[in-house]
Queue: 2 jobs
Job 1
Amino acid sequence: MYWLSKTRYKIGLLLPSFCIYTVFILLPIAMAVRYSFTKYSGLGKPQFTGLQNYVRMFQDDLFWSSFKNTMIMFVLAFVLLLVLSFAIALLLNKKLKGSDLSKALIFSPAIIAPIIVGIIWVYILDPNVGIINGILDAIGAEGLKHQWIGGATLTPYSLAIVYFWQQLGYLVTIFIAGLKMLPEEVMEAAIIDGANEWQKVTRIIIPMMKSNISTVAILIITGVFKIFEIVQQTTGGGPNHLSETLVTYSYTMTFDSGDYGYGMSLATVTFIVSLIIVGIYSAFFGDKEEKKEAKARRKLAKEAKAAKKAAKGGAA
Amino acid sequence: MISKRNKSLLQLLIAAITILIVFPLAWMVMLSFKTSGEIMSNPIAPPTSFNLENFTHALDILNYGQLYGNTFIVCIIALVIELICTFFSSFVIARMHFYHPGIKGALFTFFILGLSVSPFILLFPVYKINVFFGLRGIWALIFPYAASSVSFNTLLLVNYFKQLPSEIDEAAVVDGCNIWQLMFRVILPMSKPVLATIIIFNVLYIWNEFPYASVMLRDVSEYTLSMGASFFKGTYTVDYGGIVASSLMIIIPELIFYGIFQKNIVEGMTAGAVKG
């Protein structure tokens, strides 16, 4: 392939992707950050206001309630999804009769438009037309009826369940793909050594699936910070913005209130918060091997530097 | 290994989980045969008769031919653009010779970084960029959609191209292929499986995409499917039956699509995750 690797071909062939990617992905991020330091109503020129939007955000009760709602959804969805998708993957990996059909059916919510996922769950959670309160009514347990959505408190918990429903099959499939890659011999050896089911899972499968678990964890984190349609469809952020999440609040501020500068600062913060959580996760549970390698590399670099310095000193 | 009794218990557990997950979908089908009045007065009662009123009503309000048509046009044009772009760039990254090998890795990382970007930070700036270029209606969606898939396509294509033996290129060049013939006559026919996965995955993405559509589309005649689904919300009349029926008309084709291309869809979604 050496002959055809002319620079002019390379540049020509890379250019279309580079342009579309830069103009519609990278440039917008820079623009969003720039708008976040301005006051902009859509008309005229954005006025530079420094950190004013960020100061306003810290004093904005709605920002903090959206933040709280997002965190509730995140923690609940994270724990439920990580534990249960792993457990179900273990179950389905036993290759019992009907497992393939179950896999296909459990996966199906993941392909449905999120906007319709929202609609579907209105008919389950809605206090008036939803099935949950309907059943509680029918069995005479009116005391247990709640405003699952649209009330002041329960919405983020309910929406975490909706998100759980939507993502479960997808994450189960990723875990099954990981389980399939585990070497058979290790499992056989464990059985011969008399390991029981619980020991097999905690001592062998989980440690060997570390990178797989990390992938799923990061998918959940970034996914929760993209939840939008199901909030929009079920409560629209109401009542009085109380069930707003960071994403929907920034959307509302930008496109409904026309407060573009503030909306963009909210979007920027949301993006940064999700990156920080990914960072925290990787710092605590990230690939140990990789960290060791990085440490070794740093040490080598340091030694090389020291050696260089010593050589320099010697020359002088 | 597993006793017979335990085995049937586990099977029962799997069945229970599956039913629990599928239930909301089945519930929608059941509701679609009930009138709005029946849904409101007694949500859990089964339908009194098998009537298709909700569906005919939904067909009256929304032009589904147009919704499907618009979505189809957006899909086709966005796919053509993104496939040409990413096929070329991935070919360079995976198979061309670089004097400095680090550049290859850097280009790959550069193009897949987009996987971690949330669309919500992009919405308003992209809207401004569209205005700047004079892109309106469905054209305002095509370029953002194509750009959003650059990262995913690069990931899959580069990994796939790298698996093809390099002797193929050498043989082709020795036989007198120029660069275009090499790409279109040799590499392209060999890439059918990965292209199928990419196309199916992106069709699904565009079919479901809502945030961009809600910002860029103003006129009902430009609506794509996901906008059609949200249409009933804005009308302020609580037409529960109509909403259920219109949602089903969007997801049933989607579920059939999933049934047919299940392997590719699952492969695409997990490949993007596992390798990313």
Job 2
Amino acid sequence: MVNQTTAELRNVTKRFGAITAAQGLNLAIFPGEFLSFLGPSGCGKTTALRMLAGFEQASEGDILIDGEVVNGVPPYQRPVNMVFQQYALFPHMDVARNVAYGLNQRRPRLARADIDAKVAQALDMVRLSGFAGRRIWEMSGGQQQRVALARAIVNEPKILLLDEPMAALDKKLRHDMQIELKSLQRELGITFVLVTHDQEEALSMSDRVCIMHRGRIAQIGTPEELYDQPQSRYVADFIGRSNFLPARALGHDGGQLLAEGPGGLRFVARAGGRAAGDGAVTLSLRPEEVRVAREDAAGEGHEMRVTHRIFLGEHVEYHLRSAALDHLVAVVPRSEDIAGGMPGVGAAVRVAWRDGAALALAED
Amino acid sequence: MRLYALAVYLFLYIPIGVIALFSFNAGRHAAQFSGFSLQWYGKTLANPFVVGAFKTSFTVAISSALLATLFGTLAAVALQGVRGRLRLLYDALVYVALMVPGIVIGIATLIALVTVFDTLNPFLATLTGPDNPFQLGLGKGSLIAAHGLFTMALVIIIVRARLQGMDRSLLEASADLGAPPMRSFLQITLPQIAPAVMAGFLLAFTFSFDDFIIAFFVAGSETTLPIYVFSSIRRGVTPEINVIGTLVMAASLISLITAQVIMRRRSH
């Protein structure tokens, strides 16, 4: 059979003493894909990356790179390279020698001219052509990161591993770097595996995102899938924002689920994840799915009162309350807000949502 | 308070200053300054006993410092891999080696060496023949061994501090880029700890060069510079003693300051 995956985790568990950092990970990474491990600190995402790099060995299960089991293979024999969180550039070497480091480790040795050419090409790729002779401490944080990137990609790894590479950059630079990284990945066609706790970073760059929760994979999917069809309350909460309402399932109607929420409110919800059965469910309702109209406007809806109105530029956030719903967040685009007459704090409004806007999830 | 501090410093440094001053004395009495002259420097350096003692001290100091630096550095690197209680034990032993009074180390080393020599020498005599047999004895070798062991603790502590301050991810990066452990050590660790190794060497050298107490016990028939000073002082303080004191002090200060400068240089 033709080998289809760049890397695979098969039932991988990692324990550090009594602590289980990663449990039963099953994952296939495909050639040329940009995959992110996303989760809060301590969720096992860094452990997963370090097991791919070879810095940690799995306690159980198999790790495959390019179709071969690499259990027990040390980092220096794996065809992967890593961009470290604090870059880990060698301070006693200039930029060019840092970038050439990996090439200089090859046995049999590469020709001097080949190494120089590859280094120049890699530096050019990260737009640092004039910086070959610079010392590391003369470079800004963003430049250092590009050196770290060049030092890794110059080896043409099967997988480029990135451990929170943007964590040390300021916000503006981070955004530029995300775009740059994504285009670099398209250009090189190398598989990128990124670890991050920043959902925006994961969603904006990745082909697929693997959301981790307490050492396990909570859900893997494209950013759109994760946002539209979260399989659990954890994922719905982690990706974007959501209102969570306790409800009781009344019955099915095709793919839809009829549910009764707080105060007898009826919802026609999509059935997500394991929420197939009847009984208690949690409804996830995205703030942008909540429509807010002034009380005197035409139409129907649940009557609520505005407790906070937060102006955020391109959209406005309303915090609402009624006898039935303790707290509901709605996000209204600025233009709609103006058209709707901008209800202020204390104003009575009618809120509504279309059928299928809410997603029914099994209680966690 | 300031007055006390001043008094303490005066008490500490005036005698040293006096020695340095009197080394330039023109007269032949150590207690009476009768004009500025370099004549005693000339006379001291022409004295074959002084030169011989200096050569012995220098050889011992260089050899013991080299050994201490080599083994101390290796020990410090190896200790990085030791964790838990065993690490605590090693750490304690290293610090104890520095805290034990010189006189105890001197006596202990002497007894240990003599015991070993007495055990080995009959055996060596049978091996090398009864005529002119090869025998172990006190001398430069035992001086180097005693100083080397003691100063190794210094080197371990200095190099360890540097190793602990080193970013662990540098070694991971090196491994990630394809360098096996030995090459990572030579290409990354060694350049990173080089200043500490150099400083450790200078401190070890200074210690050995200055040491009197341990040397006194294990020197055998050898005379190091401090031992020479000690034995000549019994015949009274001559300007020659002042010259030797001043020169030793200058040499020690220079190497200590150099060690400090190397250690404090920006860490890259």
